[in-house]
């Protein structure tokens, strides 16, 4: 399930513009793909971004990282892509399972303490298909049942690339809209980074 976009317009906790923005919680269904994005401040394009799992920021385990490059990287069912133009990291987790639920962190690696934001992943039951017992007229009539079976694996697998593609299109479209609104507000005289970071002032951001 794609998270709402309202959080993109929020400032940092101390009233200043945040150096890293991520949704606090995302959810997806078993067997489907889950996507989310983290927005970072201008000046961090070449830094290593990563996705780690664990209850605490100082003990979480990295599951995938960008190595500071825009080239998509994948590790098992998890992939990460860094967009240096619009300053966001796209994370995708395919074929969700109940074991994927838990606490994660979106992070930017830097000297000293990394910039990190926690994200809670919730996994919901998958969709099911079922058929009802034969009724008096003979034959079978499809209806809901507590004894449901999963749809064929081939059909479910075919939905994964479609979901990922739609998510990428949604991210690109939303990023373009945010960038256009920002450019209109800043005016033609503003110079600096083209990152579509919400509330960008053209300066480097701290933690």
**Percent strand:** 25-35%
| CATH class descriptor | Mainly Beta
Task: Note the overall shape.
Answer: globular
CATH fold label: Immunoglobulin-like
Determine the structural class based on helices, strands and strand pairing: alpha+beta
Order of helices and strands: EEEEEEEEEEH
Instruction: Tell me how many strands there are.
Output: 10
Mean pLDDT: 72
Query: N- to C-terminal separation?
Result: 29 Å
CATH homologous superfamily placement: Immunoglobulins
Query: In the CATH classification, which architecture applies?
Result: Sandwich
Give me the side-by-side strand order of the main sheet.
1-3-8-7-6
Uncertain segments of ≥5 residues (pLDDT<50)?
1-17, 129-158, 188-193, 199-207
Task: Tell me the domain tally.
Answer: 1
Helix content: 10-25%
What radius of gyration results from the CA coordinates?
20 Å
Tally of helical segments: 1
Largest sheet: 5 strands, antiparallel
If you had to describe this structure to a student in words, what would you say it looks like?
16% of the residues lie in helices and 27% in strands. By secondary structure, it is α+β, with helices and mostly antiparallel strands. The protein has one domain: Sandwich (Immunoglobulin-like). Strand 9 and strand 10 (115-124) form a beta hairpin. The longest helix is centred in the last third of the chain and has 34 residues, at 153-186.
